[in-house]
Specification:
- Helices cover about 25% and strands about 40% of the residues.
- It is built from three helices and eight strands.
- The chain has an eight-stranded mixed beta sheet with strand order 2-3-4-1-5-8-7-6.
- A hairpin with a 4-residue loop joins β2 and β3.
- Bound molecules: zinc ion (ZN).
- Zinc ion binds next to β1 and β5.
Amino acid sequence: MISAVDHIGIAVKDLEASMGLYSTIFGVTEFHREQVVDQGVDIASFSLGGVRIELTAPLNDDSPIAGFLAKRGEGIHHVAFRTDTINDDLQRLAANDVKLINTVPQPGAHDMLIAFLHPKSTGGVLMELCSEK
Ligand code: ZN
């Protein structure tokens, strides 16, 4: 069941500069740092009232985040929803004509499994489902 907002992914060009900005705004003193090579992303995240804010920079020019930044610039990239039934959810959504970017869950940050839904099927919002392994 999809049960909560897990995190908000924010595309940034310069991770260090963004960490400085978020420290100023929210008083964050410690970020979780992680690179997910499969996704081509370098992440700095922190928790705010149980919702993680994930500042996400591209690791290379082939990263989907690099494409996003080139097209749209910095800003909100995706909203991720926590589920404990990710495979069932993907099947159900596909059966209801929701276009999936990932038909099979992929390894994501925080040792989670993730799958993206296509924004063309979700009113322009890039949605991610994420689940503990
Ligand atoms: Zn995410």
